[in-house]
Design brief:
The structure holds two protein chains of two kinds.
Chain A (H helix, E strand, L loop, with lengths): L2 H11 L3 E8 L6 E7 L2 E7 L3 H17 L3 E5 L7 H4 L5 E8 L4 E5 L3 H12 L3 E6 L15 E4 L2 H8 L8 E4 L4 H12 L5 E4 L3 H13 L5 H5 L1 E2 L11 H17 L16
Parallel strand pairs in A: 6-7, 6-9, 7-8, 9-10, 10-11
Antiparallel strand pairs in A: 1-2, 1-5, 2-3, 4-5
Chain B lengths: L4 H9 L4 E10 L9 E5 L4 E3 L7 H14 L4 E6 L15 E8 L3
Antiparallel strand pairs in B: 1-2, 1-5, 2-3, 4-5
Classes of the chains: A alpha/beta, B alpha+beta.
Chain lengths: ~270, ~100
């Protein structure tokens, strides 16, 4: 199997893989690949010198862990400190990480769920719909979902909550205290980057009381909850609401203000 | 690159030579992030994109040159303030650097 074929197999299977390519300097075009399957790192390919391979493999594994893509500079024998790089030709290495797609867990098999699932798919999420009611939580109602789970929030978070990270989102659309209180509790126990909870301001106020009853009341915990969910776009339909939720997720991740660019100044992409 | 794999496979199984251009870095304002990729086959067919459409035409001619010359990969840059850049600019005013190579690895 060629390096490209191995690389392609990892990308298709969504196992984490990073590709390091010399894009400038001696050995241009040479490649080294680091993949991680079930916690084991595998290094394939070579950049032409064993010391360079060792240093770049180490850095590539680090970039892969963080899901980052970028450029690094070395000497032809893996020198990496500025003093060592004086008087040597520079090898410019482009390290590109391919991490599995971010996850969105949507709790509640309601009208808004299908629209949110569709918009999330456009943004590249792996979408999981979760509801305890068997007649509502069906693949037929949510064909866009990668997975439809008939279960309660608590077992869902207990078995898989550890897979959620800063790039992931949990959207709780149930409006049902039996379901949304344990879902909020479960989500708060993870490192998930976004927790949105649907409901009117009245529902939100009542939910805060119920959360306090189960011990969720600290400002740090409550500040993680985006509730009521979504940006104030004024939309009404499930699709418009889905855009408002996803726009909020993007703005939270980037730390931008979600104001019209016309009303702001400065660099757009920074 | 994930999104262009199907087109690349189709071309390769039809025996076509393929080149891939990847965004390496961006200075200033740029429409696509590092890693954005575009593939070109020997007939000039294109999959994916590396900018908002400002430099794709120039990337196709570079890629075809690399496919036909058979040489190693190379860096090319586009942007208003780079003397060696091509006569196309990014409408958003940034500089984009790409690495273009044949897919023969």
């Amino acid at each position: 199997m060629s390096l490209y074929e191995e690389f392609r197999a990892h990308v298709r299977a969504q196992t984490p893989v990073a590709l390091a390519t010399i894009v400038e300097g001696p050995g241009i075009g040479a490649k080294l690949m680091v993949s991680r399957t079930n916690g084991t790192e595998v290094v394939t390919g070579s950049l032409g010198h064993p010391d360079l391979d060792r240093v770049v493999a180490r850095d590539t594994a680090g970039e892969l862990e963080a899901g980052r893509t970028g450029v690094r500079h070395y000497g032809p024998e893996g020198q990496a400190t500025p003093e060592d790089l004086v008087d040597t030709p520079t090898v410019v290495v482009f390290i590109e990480s391919f991490s599995p797609p971010p996850q969105m867990w949507i709790f509640g098999a309601v009208d808004f769920t299908a629209a949110l699932g569709r918009v999330a798919k456009v943004l590249g999420y792996r979408v999981t719909v979760c509801d305890a009611r068997e007649i509502f939580a069906t693949k037929r109602r949510f064909p866009m979902a990668d997975e439809v789970m008939v279960t309660w929030p608590t077992p869902m978070f207990e078995s898989r909550g550890h897979t959620l990270g800063p790039r992931d989102a949990v959207c709780i659309l149930t409006h049902d205290p039996k379901f949304d209180v344990p879902a909020v509790q479960g989500a708060l126990a993870t490192n998930v980057g976004y927790i949105g909870v649907m409901g009117s301001r009245k529902t939100h106020a009542k939910r805060l009381e119920r959360l306090a009853e189960v011990g969720v009341s600290s400002p740090e915990q409550l500040s993680r909850l985006m509730s009521p969910i979504g940006l104030d776009l004024g939309g009404r339909t499930p699709e418009e609401t889905a855009i408002a939720i996803c726009a909020e997720i993007i703005a939270r991740r980037t730390g931008h203000t979600a104001t019209s660019l016309k009303l702001t100044s400065g660099s757009i992409h920074s | 690159m994930r999104e262009i794999l199907d087109d690349i496979d189709r071309w390769r199984s039809a025996g076509k030579k393929v080149a891939v251009a990847r965004v390496i870095n961006i200075e200033g304002s740029g429409p696509r992030d590092p890693g954005a990729a575009m593939a070109v086959n020997e007939d000039g067919e294109v999959a994916g994109s590396v900018s908002g459409g400002c430099v794709e035409g120039a990337v196709v001619s570079e890629a075809l040159g690399i496919i036909h010359d058979g040489g190693p990969g190379k860096m090319v840059s586009f942007g208003y303030s780079d003397d060696e850049a091509f006569a196309v600019g990014l409408t958003c005013g940034g500089i984009i650097r790409l690495y273009i190579e044949r897919l023969d690895w």
